[in-house]
Structure prediction request, 154 residues.
Amino acid sequence: MLLAVFSDSHGSQEPLCRAIRTYQPDMVLHLGDYVRDAMALEKALPGLEVRYVRGNCDMGAAAPEKLCFALEGVTVFMTHGHLYSVKYTLQSLANAAHFSGAQLALFGHTHQADYRRMGDVLLLNPGSAGRGEEKTFCLLTLEGGKYAWRMERL
Prediction:
């Protein structure tokens, strides 16, 4: 299963649509900050499953602050990151993911693509799809309890 993971789109919907048309993922995950961009994708691409969480710029949005779910034998914890102070430390996020039973924690908020392992959890930030000089996202493959990822530019 191929997933496209976006964060911090900040109103830039066209680059997301272009990436989806290019890579044709089975599902899209949006990690917040302009969750309305994810909602617009749902409407524009009705056959594509889109899951999303709200970020610090999504006040009042009808979206959860975190999601935890299993796909292809991998448990995924997704959140924007601001509630876990990810600009300062990733320990709180790693703990939340670990105690949720997740192997993979997806987060945004920092606008910087990053990945690192903390204990039994891989923390993965796709960067910003809408701000900064280098706009990035992540392609995530899940299959048979294993995962692989690569960062892509928009």
The chain has one domain: 2-153. DSSP finds three helices and ten strands in the chain. The beta strands are 2-6, 27-30, 49-52, 66-71, 74-79, 104-106, 113-118, 121-126, 136-143, 146-153. The chain has a mean pLDDT of 96.
